[in-house]
Each structure stands twice: as C-alpha cells, then as structure tokens.
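#dry-run=false #mode=assembly
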Amino acid sequence: MASDLLSVPAGFAAADRPAGDDTIGEINKYDFRTESKPVFRAQRGLNRDIVAQISAMKGEPQWMLDFRLRSLEIFESKPMPRWGGKIDVDFQDIYYYLKPADKQGHSWEDVPREIKDTFDKLGIPEAEKKFLAGVKAQFESEVVYGSLKEDLAEKGVVFTDTDSALREHPELFREYFSTIIPPEDNKFAALNSAVWSGGSFIYIPKGVKIDFPLQAYFRINAENMGQFERTLIIVDEGAEVHYVEGCTAPMYTTESLHSAVVEIIVKRGARCRYTTIQNWANNIYNLVTKRAVAYRDATMEWIDGNLGSRLTMKYPAVYLKEPGARGEILSIAFASKGQHQDAGAKLVHCAPNTTGQIISKSISKNGGRASYRGLVRVEKGATNSKCNVVCDALILDPRSQSDTFPYIEVAEQDASIGHEASVSKIGEEQLFYLMSRGLTEAEASTMIVNGFIEPLVKELPMEYAVEMNRLIQLQMEGSVG
Amino acid sequence: MADVNAAAESNGSKPNDVLEIVNLHVSVNGKPILRGVNLRMLRGETHALMGPNGSGKSTLGLAVMGHPNYEITEGRIELNGVDLVEMEADQRARAGLFMAFQRPVAIPGVKLADFLRHATTNVRNPNRKEGEELLPMREFRKELRSKMEHLRMDTEFARRYVNDGFSGGEMKRAEILQLAMLQPKFAILDETDSGLDADAVRLASESIAEIGRKNMGLLIITHHDKLLEHNPPDFTHVMLGGRIVETGGVELAAELYGHGYDRIRKAYPEAEAENRAMLEKEEPQTVA
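#status=ok
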C-alpha cells in the first residue's frame, strides 16, 4: 500500500529520518515551506500509511510520527461512547487530510442555499472567494495583524499555527503537547492526536498581559478550516491573554467530522480566556475535547458558543490544580431542527481553596435537542472548594427537547457546591408586554432569547456580541439550519 | 396603519383622533367579565375609570391593548373608525395605543435602552419590516437621555434589564419613560395597585402631566386620588359588574374618593348583583 501512494523526497521518509530533537534544525535548513511539496493524492480512509503520509507531508520529527501512530492504535482500540449523541460516521469514508488546493476544488454551487443566504444576511461580501480560498481572514485584518505581530514578537509572544510551532519552537512544544489531553483520554482525542493539522499555538511569557483578544483568523493559513485542529496555549506566570476562535459565518465543509483538541496551561497568577463562537451547518459532527489546567491563583475562563451542527459534544474543562485557582465556564447551546447539542462543562477541584462557576444556557427549537452534561468533582484534599452551577434551558416549542445530566462528586465535607437549574419557555406575559410596545411576536421572541443568553454575550468582544445576537436572530427565523 | 392615520386626517376641519369602545363583551377562560362597555375618547381628553373590585376595570384595559387571554366575544374597538379587534397587540401599539402596567413583567438580559430603541423604531415607523434598520443609535441615545433628564431619571437606569429587580417606583418610572418615548395617541394607565407608595404615584402623575396629557387621550384606571390631582379627569366613568354604569365629571371622582361606592351599588342593583357573583367565584385575573 505504501508504494503506490506518493513519492516522498529523500530525507522526509520516516525511515530516513534520524530520531532526536537535534535534527529538527536540519530539516528547517531545507526551508520546508518553499520546497516543492510532495504530491499527496487526496484519499479517504484512515490507516497507518495515511497517518505516516500526513506526518511526512509536514516534515515532522520522529517523535511526532510515533505519537500519531500510537494514537491511531488507541483510536482503533477504543469503543464509541455510549452516551451523548448518535454518531453515524463511517470512519473510513472521510478525508483526513486535504491540501488547501483540494479544498479550493469545492465549487460554490455545491454549498447549500441556506449557507449562502446566511453569508448574505450577515453582510459578508466576497464570501465565495474567501470560502474557496479557505481563509477567513479579511484583507483589513491582515494589515492589522501585520503591525500587531511586531508588537507581540517584541514581547516574546509566540502566536502561530500549531504546525509551524512544532517546527519553530520544538522544545517548548514538546514540553506541553499532549500533557493535558493524552490520546488515551477518549476516542476522539485519540483520533485528533493521530491526524491533527492546524490550530493555534500561543505562548505568553511571564508577566506579559495582552490587552486585546488574539483571534484565530489572524493566522493566515489555509488550514484554518481544518477538521482536526489542535490548539495549545501556554500562559506563563502572571501573564494574561484572551483568545477568540471561530467566526459567525456558517462553518460548512463537505467533510462532516470535526474533532478538535484544545489544551491550555495557565500558570501561577496567570489568566486566560478562551472564547469560541461557532455556527455549524447541519451536516457537521462537532466533537471537541477542551481542557485547561490552572495553577496557583490562576484563572481560566471558557466562553463557549456553539450553535447548530448535527451533533455537538463539548465539555470545556478546568482542572484546579493548586490553591487559589479559579475556573469559569460559560456555555451556550442552540439546537434547531435536526440538531443535537450535548454540551456542558467539567470543573475538578484538585487543591484547597479553589473556586469555580458554570453557567450553561441552552435553547432548543423546532424539534432540536439541547442538553447540559456537566461534572463538578471535589477530590480528596481539596478542602474549602466552592463551585456554583447554573443551568437554564429554554424550550421554544413542544417539539423540542432539553435534558440535564449533572454529575456531582464530592470527597470533602466542607465543599460548597450549588446547583440551580431552570427550564422555561417564552412567557406569554413577556411576549404580550413586548408586543404591546410594537414588537412583532417574532421580534419579541428573539429579544427574549437574546436576553436569555445575555450573561454570556456580555463577555464577548463587541463585534462578536453583535454577531452573536444576529445569529440568534437568524436561528429564530429558522433560516439557518 | 395608514388607514388609522388617514381616517384621523379626514375627520373634518379640526382633525382629532377618536378611540371608541362599542358594546364590548370580553371573556377570560370562557367566563364573561365585560358585559357591554361603551366609551368614547378624544385625543387630549383625560378619562378616569373607577369601580370596586371585580368590576372589570383592568380587564377593559387589557382587552383594549390586545392581551391574548382576553377574548372579545362581541363589540368593537375603533380607532378613527378602524376596528382593532382583529389586530394583535403590536399592531395596536403601532396604531397608537399604549398601556402602562402596574407591575410590568421582567425581561431578563434585555437592556431598557435596547428594548426602547426597538419599540420606538416600530411605533414611529409602523410599516417597518422585520430586520430593517433601527433608529440610528446616536440620535436615539440623545433623545432618550434628554427625556430621562426631563423626567429626573438617572441615565444609568437605561442600562438595567427591563423590570428586572426594579422597585415599584422604578417600574412606574420605566413605564412613564416608555410613554414619553412612544408618544401614543391613547394611553391606558393601570393604577389599580394601591400598594404603591405615594411618592411614586405623585412623580408618575406629575410626569404624565409634563409629558403633555393634552397630546394624548388618557384612560386612567385608578384608586389614587393623587394621580387625578395632577391630571383632573374630563370624564369619570364608574364600572360595576362589567359595565360602565355612570359617567360624570371631576366631581364624581371626588365623590367616590370621599364616600366610596355605596351610592352606586344601591343605584344599580343588577350590576351590583353581577359584581358580587363575579367576586364569589373569582379566579385571579391575569395582570401584566
């Protein structure tokens, strides 16, 4: 099987590559990016050879290839989860790696009507060009980013895509990569570990505070639309960063399995906020493993707005490893027709005097299903833990569904854990009140739903907040998904 | 909406808006509450609506405003000759009706300013389509600020979530601010909650007077004489058993405050009987 695939230039084939980090420099000498790339024939399926090809394509060191192959074994050996949503995927019928040029091959005509409509409604011009290029960045942001890059570089900040980071910062990369989410963690983390490509790598040095959000689309990289992004963020002591990923334009790709992994390390006294706004088309399985570790007096905040998709499973987690650590998770799930959002959070108190908060808002309409699945765990020794969970569900019509699966495991007597849950529909009195001021029923409903998710929206950067509200409006009109 | 406004203009040499309630019958959950109410108001007039518990005062207000639970089984509500009965509440608002509630419902997460901007846009542009531009933010903010200052309200108040955690006085102020921004042709003020403190009521009544009750037709449903002090009614209507049994001027209001409803009950025994029956099997009425 290996023979008929591709011609790998000498030096890149796995067998030719010497092991050990000191060879990385040598590979860099080839100036990988300008060298003509090996021809990779796009093909479906998942096996050792394809994984090896992916690694070879990227010119990765031996350890990463080994890691990928081991992960593949783990993936194959693990059963499918028997909880959450129904995953109806033929793993051999998927492209696990596509060159950007192949992605460009998709024609605009193939894109579903409602996706195109959404681009129009969101006022995104030239959507077609950008879509085909696989690059979300707009020209203006390239210019903006140009000057930001210098500023960041001066501060010693690393902000690049994960593939580049492996090449350019190998020690730093290897020190942290997969330390938070090992491939054994779950089947889809194993999958990602085998075939990951793209994603962001961020390192913020000690004491450096970035006062504007770093955004995913600043990374000019055709692999932005990757299905198996791998993001690694390290915030060193006393540093601060806010990272925003996603965009409100609908994520549509013909390859429907998206399985990302995000690992975050927040060191002593540091602060990190990770915001996701993503609007997925109806064919997408969005299965993501996101986990952060917070050390002494560190704060980690997840703001997670995943709307749409056929099935989303996401449970941003914070492990409070040392005293004084704090974790906050704000999550919105919006499930419309044909959509299932199984979303939630995990907070694990591993040390004394740690605090946490989970706010989950789920909305289901038109037969959609939105669920909260959350874990709060207080481990032995984690005295004086405080955690509060609020999970609110809004069910907009009788066809729709909402579930709550809260898990609370407490091993210390003095833990203070609160859990409040509410289920509601849009109140008749609220509708009447707003309508009596001239809002139509649809406008009133949308306003009420926007008010419902306000605790999350007010944490978003302004332009995302505006987009989020508009997205809700579109979802409410039923024109998306 | 064009009809309503056109009708007003074609009303002769001195066009004035007219709200006419004709033989209105209203049921709630199948139970008849209003049994034929007739009332005619011109824009610029102040009407007081009084009556003992169970007489149907709040019901009249809610039915006119278009609350879905209040079923109009007979009769008409005509604004400049156009019947509103088939219209939803939002259409009635855009036709120029407004209702200030005593304990308005909270809309968590929705800022008063944002809500007002949307409402004001729709009411001033009754034919606006969903999704069209709202009033430009800068101008709106300027106008809102100016009106809030005029009403002696702290502008920070506009950032609070609508009626969420508001005190009784704050709710009242928020309702009046809406009145000031939306500038309806006809406003129904439901003041039946006597639990409100006197100061709040006084402020409300002064504000209404300031806003210019001469520009609006006011229907004040009330127990408080304080409100009427600043807004003396041109007409006083007394309800009993789901009907207006008597209409008078300002002296009637004074009489009722001074002496209660004994005379009325005796003068209209059938209505009194119906009123009593209503109270005996009274279900709590929905009041927004």
